[in-house]
Specification:
The chain has 434 residues and is an alpha+beta fold. The chain has helices spanning 5-54, 56-61, 64-75, 104-107, 162-212, 227-266, 276-293, 307-314, 316-332, 357-372, 401-417; strands spanning 80-87, 92-96, 114-119, 122-130, 151-160, 297-305, 339-344, 347-352, 376-378, 381-383, 386-394, 423-424. The protein folds into 3 domains: 5-165, PAS domain (Beta-Lactamase); 216-265; 276-424, Alpha-Beta Plaits. Strands 2-1-5-4-3 form a 5-stranded antiparallel β-sheet. The structure holds guanosine-5'-triphosphate.
């Protein structure tokens, strides 16, 4: 099952924190309660321990008013709700406040300050009163070590334990409050930290998805205040930029290569003129335009005369150079609107746009004249060539491009047959050279 980062981060921080806080607060409460109990008991034992020697005189002398005054003074102490003095026969002498229990049965066993027990909201404590020969100034003495005969009575006090219970409740409440506050602060910190962390990661993940989907212009904001995350954001942007630049360079190379291939596919590498394939497309277009718009175009099929001699005498390089010069020469003698092609060997074709029969004838004658008067010099040897030209009208009404090309070829052949270096036009009515 897939899950997102934020809840994972939150549970990774909050759960251990909650567990730790619970354990710490429970330990703290356990120790705190114990300390409160101990402090309460020690305070009670302290009171009876102080009270016993103070009651010695009253018990020996049987001076009840003195014991009353003593009891009254002790009742002023916090949580003391009852006090009683008993003589050596465990008979009550003075009692102040109402005792919740009758401790006489157990008092005879009491040889030192003790907690007799807890009754409801009361804690009962007792201490023996000893007749000491010397003034009591050392309260830490072990009275139980004295002889039983020196015990002249007991003092009993009862403490109200409700303040102890309130203190315990206070402790519970404060500890739980502090724990809850600490957990809330932890949760807030964890939420904000997880938010800062997971937001950045989520945006990076989204950007990676966009990049994978082909959006190379994707950029993430470099705004994280966590150093490592900012490094990730910067790294992603640099990576996306590099990919985008590489892709652009690659695309430019592909475009350039495609353009070169397209040019090569439609051009003759020797003369730079459009080739046979380009010519066939252009002738198709011209035929269609003739049908649709009645355009008046003409086609010249030019085959050089005695070209082979140049090749055979001066070599192929000379023949190549001559083909280039003838191409240039023809281009100079036609109008900008006309289209010249080299369709193979020493064959050139010319589509004369928007050209009447008379004008076409004139152009063809000019070309023939120009080619035949061309002085081609190769390494000191001069060559002259000629041009046999077949001239036909491009009329698409009842002829296809292929028919027109064949007619032009045949017209050119007729020019050759007729003695070379001439322009041949088929009979006007048939537009063919038969
Ligand atoms: N240098 C060079 N020669 C080529 C090229 N393409 C074809 N040729 C040659 O051109 C010649 C064309 O042959 P022909 O048309 O019969 O030669 P020609 O001397 O013009 O003959 P006629 O047309 O009857 O006058 C052949 O020898 C081919 O080898 C090329 O690209 N460069």
């Amino acid at each position: 099952m897939k899950t997102s980062l934020k809840p994972l981060l939150l549970s990774a921080v909050i759960l251990p924190a909650a567990l730790l806080a619970t354990v710490i607060s429970m330990v703290f409460i356990a120790f705190g309660l114990r300390a409160l109990d101990t402090e309460f008991e020690e305070r009670g034992l302290g009171i009876v321990s102080f009270l016993a020697p103070a009651a010695e005189y009253g018990l020996i002398s049987g001076n009840r008013p003195a014991l009353d005054a003593l009891a009254f003074g002790v009742l002023e102490q916090r949580d003391v709700v009852a006090i009683a003095f008993f003589d050596a026969e465990v008979r009550p002498l003075v009692q102040s406040g109402r005792l919740s229990s009758t401790p006489q049965a157990t008092l005879s066993e009491v040889n030192s300050p003790v907690i007799l027990g807890k009754e409801g909201e009361r804690m009962v404590l007792a201490a023996p009163v000893m007749a000491l020969p010397l003034a009591i100034d050392d309260l830490m003495r072990d009275v139980a070590a004295l002889d039983d005969t020196s015990r002249i009575g007991w003092t009993v006090i009862e403490l109200d334990t409700r303040s102890l219970e309130r203190s315990k409740q206070d402790m519970w409440f404060r500890t739980l409050l502090v724990t809850a506050l600490a957990l809330m602060v932890t949760a807030w910190l964890a939420t904000s930290l997880a938010g800062r962390f997971s937001d950045v990661i989520a945006r990076l993940a989204g950007a990676v998805d966009a990049l994978r989907a082909g959006r190379l212009d994707i950029v993430v904001e470099e705004a994280s205040d966590i150093r490592e995350l900012r490094t990730l954001q910067q790294g992603f942007n640099q990576m996306a930029r590099s990919i985008s630049e590489s892709q652009a360079t690659l695309q430019a190379r592909v475009d350039e290569a495609t353009a070169q291939l397209a040019h090569l596919a439609l051009h003759d590498p020797l003369t730079g003129l459009p080739n046979r394939r380009a010519f066939e497309q252009a002738l198709d277009d011209a035929v269609i335009l003739s049908r649709r718009a009645g355009d008046r175009d003409a086609l010249c099929f030019i085959d050089l005369d005695r070209f082979k001699i140049v090749n055979d005498t001066a070599g192929h390089a000379a023949g190549d150079e001559l083909l280039r010069q003838v191409g240039e020469l023809i281009r100079k003698h036609v109008r900008a609107s006309d289209h010249l092609y080299r369709i193979g060997g020493d064959e050139f074709v010319l589509i004369l746009r928007g050209c009447g029969q008379e004008e076409a004838r004139k152009i063809a004658e000019n070309l023939r004249e120009a080619v035949s008067t061309l002085k081609f010099d190769w390494e000191g040897t001069a060559f002259t060539i000629g041009a046999s030209i077949g001239l036909v009208r491009i009329l698409g009404e009842d002829k296809s491009a292929a028919d027109i090309l064949v007619a032009a070829d045949l017209a050119c052949y007729a020019a050759k047959k007729g003695g070379r270096n001439q322009v041949h036009e088929p009979v006007a009515a048939a537009d063919s050279c038969d």
